[in-house]
Amino acid sequence: MAMLGFDDEGARRLQRVYSTPDVVAQRAEVLRRLRPAAGEAVLDVGSGPGFLVAAIADAVGTDGVVRGLDPSPAMNAMASAYCADRSQVRIDDGDAGALPYPDGAFDAVVSTQVYEYVADVLGALVEVRRVLRPGGRFVVLDTDWESMVWHAADRELHRRVLEAWEEHLVDPRLPRVLPGLLERAGFRVVERVLIPLFNPVYDENTYSAGTIEVIGDFVTGRQGLTEQDVARWADDLRSRGTDYLFTINRYCFVATS
Ligand SMILES: C[S@@+](CC[C@H](N)C(=O)[O-])C[C@H]1O[C@@H](n2cnc3c(N)ncnc32)[C@H](O)[C@@H]1O
Predict the structure, then answer these.
(1) Is the CB of 118 under 6 A from ligand 1?
(2) Is 79 a member of any domain?
(3) How many domains does the structure of the chain reveal?
(4) Quick check: CB of 4 below 6 Å from ligand 1?
């Protein structure tokens, strides 16, 4: 797997995409399932820009404890700055495979768009179960990248772009096996929720418009894709107007330990 740039520029780009109404609505759906309550201790694995951490902190209040964990220094700097006025929050440097917390430390754990980047998902889920108290809640969300529908003119070029894009993930179709892995890690899956993102017209302030830039940057130079190929692919999507269409499915699983 080639790592997506979760450096300063990558973090800023992700922050923009994750501020769009599409991803704001997705976070609200995840929060609704996580149900953080006043005074609880909650962990966000792979906390990225820290938007979900902040929302959880507001729900648990100053008597609660919220930890965000991420291996990217750029992401952690961004999340720490974003949550700076919330004393119940600490952002820690670390990896999903070895959570730096004691057994049973949390009432709830959440992780969105992270395990598709993790090599040993089962091991990471076992770690989540270890740091949850008995009966604790776990909400996990990932994308099946094959669920993406995007109205591109040159289907062969589009196929090559998406094939190159998948190089940044360990498992681009993780949701298909996540419930089974959760059960093997000792969880009971209690809810399965489909969260589609739908952009029926081209609009700069959408998930897909921002993602054109993220994908374009990553795939240039991979699988023989030149700058010109990628510019042609991006220009076509951006100029589709009312013929534009984008959808992708997120899969959210709620489990108890
Ligand atoms: C697509 S972003 C999602 C960020 C955040 N969870 C959200 O939904 O807003 C993926 C995040 O996972 C982090 N990540 C990648 N590999 C990881 C690992 N092995 N353990 C923990 N986090 C990881 C990245 O640094 C990045 O912040």
Answers:
(1) yes
(2) yes
(3) 1
(4) no
| 232-252 pLDDT, tens digit each | 999 999 999 889 999 999 999
Residue of 114, 121, 168, 207 best suited for mutating to test ligand 1, as the one with most atoms within 8 Å of CB: 114
Q: pLDDT (tens digit, 9 = 90+) per residue, 14-73?
A: 889 999 999 999 999 999 999 999 999 999 999 999 999 999 999 999 999 999 999 999
Are residues 252 and 193 in contact, defined by beta-carbon separation less than 8 angstroms? yes
Query: Domain holding 65: CATH number?
Result: 3.40.50.150
Q: How high is the mean pLDDT of the chain?
A: 95
Sign of the CA dihedral with 62 first, then 77, 36, and 46 last:
negative
Domain assignment of residue 96, given as a range: 8-145+170-199+249-256
Is residue 77 helix, strand or coil?
Answer: helix
Asked if residue 224 belongs to a domain, the reply is no
pLDDT confidence bin for 172, thresholds 50/70/90 = very high
| DSSP collapsed to 3 states, 184-231 | HCCCEEEEEEEEEEEECCCCCCCHHHHHHHHHHHHHCCCCCCCHHHHH
pLDDT at site 10: 80
